[in-house]
């Protein structure tokens, strides 16, 4: 082998190695893993019953017995935050899953078939996107009534157009590829062409969107609960905990400080993880 041929071309790193280049993404991944772990093993991690009230401990600051202090009813704030992670995780997963399925389905149908069907679907998506997310969610919850399920529906409705537009844009490009044209020429029905050749090639941007949308959904859930339109008390939920402590910001700032830190950390963690996945999955952004 001559010297020229011995110069091996640089091999593009694997997705895992590319992801590991992003230090902020690794931090985000660790935050997400910790969040999921706390939510799943809440009964083991929490030291007290999140519903147990102790009036004599009302608004007590952090201490050796209660490391994050007590809320306005004397309940252990740390235990309520831990169990609140369960509610937030459930909310984020359910709303994002529903929005992903519905939005992907609408986007691939609109992009693959085009024409009047595409225009009808996309104009409806534009109509939903015309409303700010929180305002649309508030309007839907006001109609359906407060509660966890209705909040999921409200947040999921606003997330559907985001997935639909992204998948449609990818489908418009994929449907012109040679392998898709060949499948059509062989007479394969449209649903098989979509399932075998179009959908698999729209997964990368959807994965990134899913990661980011979970964090957005958690933030939206807390916003609705803070306004009294989401999870109802005494269910431990971060937004509801914030709402319960807003009247005591000066006398007992820990009641709002720690839920705010938890919420911000988780949302930023999901965002950082999504950015890292985007960089790893997008060939134009990869290092060589």
Structural class: mainly alpha
How many domains would you count in the coordinates? 1
Radius of gyration: 23 Å
Which spans of ≥5 residues are poorly predicted at pLDDT below 50? 1-12
Strand and helix order:
HHHHHHHHHHHHH
The proportion of residues forming helix, as a percent range, comes to 55-70%
Query: What is the arithmetic mean of pLDDT?
Result: 86
Number of helices: 13
* Assembly classification: single chain
Q: Report strand %.
A: under 5%
The name of the CATH topology is: MetI-like fold
Give an account of the 3D structure:
With 288 residues, the chain is mainly alpha-helical. 69% of the residues lie in helices and 0% in strands. It has 13 helices and no strands. The chain is elongated. The protein starts with a helix and ends in a 7-residue tail after the last helix. The relative contact order is 0.16.
């Amino acid at each position: 082998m001559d010297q020229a041929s011995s110069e091996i071309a640089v091999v593009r790193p694997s997705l895992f190695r590319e992801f590991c280049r992003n230090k902020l993404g690794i931090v985000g991944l660790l935050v997400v893993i910790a969040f999921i772990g706390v939510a799943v093993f809440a009964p083991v991690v929490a030291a007290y019953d999140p519903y147990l009230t102790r009036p004599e401990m009302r608004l007590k600051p952090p201490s050796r017995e209660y490391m994050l202090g007590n809320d306005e009813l004397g309940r252990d704030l740390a235990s309520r935050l831990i169990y609140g992670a369960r509610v937030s995780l459930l909310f984020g997963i359910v709303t994002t899953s529903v929005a992903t399925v519905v939005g992907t389905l609408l986007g691939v149908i609109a992009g693959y078939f085009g024409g009047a069907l595409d225009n009808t679907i996309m104009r409806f998506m534009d109509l939903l996107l015309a409303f700010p997310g929180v305002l649309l969610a508030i309007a839907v919850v006001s109609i359906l009534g407060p509660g966890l399920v209705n909040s999921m529906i409200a947040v999921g409705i606003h997330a559907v157009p985001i997935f639909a537009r992204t998948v449609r844009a990818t489908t418009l490009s994929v449907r012109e590829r040679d392998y898709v044209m060949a499948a059509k020429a062989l007479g394969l029905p449209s649903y098989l062409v979509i399932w075998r050749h179009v959908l698999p090639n729209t997964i990368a941007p959807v994965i990134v969107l899913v990661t980011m949308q979970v964090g957005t959904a958690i933030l939206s859930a807390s916003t609705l609960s803070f306004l009294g339109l989401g999870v109802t008390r005494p269910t431990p939920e971060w937004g509801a905990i914030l709402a319960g402590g807003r009247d005591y910001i000066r006398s007992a700032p820990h009641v709002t400080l720690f839920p705010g830190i938890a919420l911000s950390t988780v949302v930023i963690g999901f965002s950082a993880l999504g950015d890292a996945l985007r960089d790893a999955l997008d060939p134009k952004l990869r290092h060589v």
